[in-house]
């Protein structure tokens, strides 16, 4: 290296790899007087097999002077390339020079403790904090002798000037949990000031020792530090929100910022309360030890987007010191941290919730799509409002995860600032004032939730001194303000039919590209929704974007209730435009018309009270120009013979949550047909349906020439960088294959999507030596192992492949499945006339893991015929396997169709059984041995599958149908039972759901979990070993006169899997049960009932007096309430009976009203707390009651059961009175409803109830349930019970 006045000696760059497209870094010692360098010479010794080297550039950074220089080369150093030189002198490109404040040299002495195992080979990282700032990460150079037990190691490092230090953070950068280090202390000396500082630790940095932390903060001691700062324990409570799929499996972290620096990013690994952390509506507590931060200002929290379900809805974070030196600090988030939700951010900065004067701003920036549009420069932004303006904000200071270096990239961040008022303009730029730092800015969006506005800035320009206008900074005014809450005018046209009028409540929900509104009540007025009337409603609701559909719900409790809806017109008032837009009518209003022409009402045709409608595409001008997301669909036609088609092909995309697109025609423009071997690509713009789980594909061809062999489809979502693969390998034809022209394809690995790395294999396929052993089919392989299964890989039939005595060699990549167990082989015929039988000898898989590591060979010997007609596939065990559980067995599959109206199905049904040893593959449920017409209402159909490799203990089952029936494609499945005939084991898979695109949640694919796993403890209940389940029955007899009994009574409990025997409640002299107002508890054991559905209750006289007459008190028994508890799962089933049971009856049937799950595993957050119920009786004349009053309170976590409101010795519910009651029960969550009931048996039973208030005495949260009406037989609608909803 050459300086202005001197040069260095020759420096050997050892340990460099110098691989293609790589960067090698070296730390060298040289006089700082050389900087800035004038030139450098670089050469190599021209030895080795690959001695030639193409050098792009050399970058030299001298922290001591703060100068970073770049020396371009862009040439070969080789004696056989270019000018054949192996030595070059490089000159600096001055335009690329960077300068920064010079670093300060320090000596660092690290003292490892003299404890057993105290040393480490892991990378140690230090961060130094001082009153002048903090350092970058200081990585201590690793070698085999450093950081060993009892050693002191010296390092020399350059650190940016931080002033007088006050703390040092030490951490291990290791993914291996076995790495541990016991640090005694660290000493540092500033070589500029000669001042010496000490940092004492004396603790483990380890994931297996001490408190399992690999980050320690050490307070500084030394000159200028009168007293070291204390180490403080911060308690961090993380509240996950209450939304579907709110929990996360990703690795989360938090960084806490205070007046004295920050904690650094700390992993949130060990929750003190929950084994499974960050579950929905759960609170997780973590401990963070750090040097005192003083006043905490903000936090930065996020995750790494890994795991099966990385999306996370974070409610809030609460932080306080263990010594309670100040109260809890709350940081409200109430947003998603997810790449596919909200604004796509997985890291958020949160400020204290007490800063109520602050306004939140969400900024999103789009870099242009042009080549070289990105920049690596630092971006800054300043916002000017009518009230105030922000400071100039650097991206790196707001969120250093933001990137704008790639074309088409989106960047975003959130910050809080005082209210700026209406935004008038912004100033944005970057610091790349030298050549090569240009940036093409496409647009900026600023969302201000407080103002319900989104400001859009259309930029479309370069920020570069070389292109466009001068300067790298520019001002922009808003081009559009989008209102997030906008007015809608809804016009409802009631039809001109007899009986079309309704007095029922009508509710509407609007769905658009940006989301959906809540259900909106179209407030009733007098004479609303009369026959042939037109009613208008003006509402404010979220801007859902382009409206895609509406849902109308008709509350049919009132009489008359039937209603005939002709149509609905919606006018959507849009944003205020700041530039001229090409619109055909009012630029601020869009109109949508929904043609309905349907009856609503339980007494009308179809008995529908909820209907959905799409806008009429022929109505007016749909002014909104926004579209759905783009899908790229690649269609792969088979490449052998006449596999193409000129028929009209259509597809429908179906999402994992049941959403689906319209049936989309695919028009091949160039050839007007799908040619053999071609891949046709189509760009579709459709609504976002989430992950694509299935594709429905069909064509309308009727002739032999329309036959089409489809290899498969690939669906891409470019904006989300997602790709989904669908394998078909079937004919769509009325003359070939199974003669079907419609297929339903599911995404590969629907159950266990592979996240494993790919491993290369060489595949040797040996066809047998017997006559006619060859075939004309493609061959499919799928590998199963100890950790999962691979994707299916298809080897195409080529000339000479799969012929008699042939050994065909292929290469492929399969997912890592652990140790191989078996190989699934399938043949895929190309036509029904070809050779569709194949004699397979064996298949060898040769696994290559890494270079220079010995390959592994797995052999799968078969020596038998494979026929597509006989069986769809064959599983072959790896040679040498001694697993007895992998012998062949017979599975008997029994499906129970529910006994519901329209539960039957005529579609083609398929299953896949999953066990410890893999899956069964797709099995078609074709021929039931029980019924000719299978899947009929209430029927159990039986299907038998022989010679299947034993899957071991079964755990899941996938079942679906192809939706091919026109009349009966909705199927309600109660359960599936699978019998392993050889092992004598039975497995139950409860379902109790619809498989239908039109009912329930719209899904026709169900993943069922086996209910047999009963040999474990849930919620502290007993261990079950004999196959019997303990159940508890709680019976509440009413306190009405003569409601008790001295007779014997009985109950039968029915579930979806089984039914109990008749269980008697014995009444004896010593055991007086079922008395008036008395609760009784009984227990019994039986085979698993599954989900309890109903009970049958009977009242029986004692046999010792069969001819006696029964007095009135014994002739009947009034049951108030019965609760059945499944003790194995902690699930309660509630039956509000409220009925007289007559003696010697045949039994009264009651259906389950609610299911209350108390399992700790299912609801870890529920605990017993006190609730106060306050009842306000109105002060009008004659409102009191002497009747018995009971209530049931319903919440998001369960209900209380029936509660009797009684106060011994007191008269309750008097005119103008306020009565209070306290009950202890399991936490209910957010209160949703209150059911109140009173019995009109008293003289004064007419009662005017004003309201009821419920107070959670743990949180002091009060919920009011207004009533303001009478409950009695003398007035109005004679209600004796009501459901009240909260305000």
Compact overview of the structure:
With 1287 residues, the protein is an all-beta fold. The protein has two helices and 87 strands. Strands 6, 7, 8, 9, 10, 11, 12, 13 and 14 form a nine-stranded antiparallel β-sheet that branches.
Percent of residues in helical segments? under 10%
**Low-pLDDT ranges:** 397-401, 576-586, 618-627, 750-756, 1013-1026, 1103-1113, 1157-1165, 1274-1279
How many whole angstroms does the radius of gyration measure?
Answer: 37 Å
Q: How does the major sheet shape up?
A: 9 strands, antiparallel
The count of helical stretches stands at 2
Please provide the count of β strands. Answer: 87
Structural class: mainly beta
Strand content: over 45%
| First-to-last CA distance | 78 Å
Shape: globular
What's the overall average pLDDT, rounded? 81
Protein name: PLAT domain-containing protein
Domain PLAT: 1-91, 104-219, 232-351, 359-477, 486-614, 629-746, 759-880, 889-1009, 1029-1155, 1169-1285
InterPro entries: Inner_ear_hair_cell_LOXHD (IPR052970), PLAT/LH2_dom (IPR001024), PLAT/LH2_dom_sf (IPR036392)
Organism: Rotaria socialis
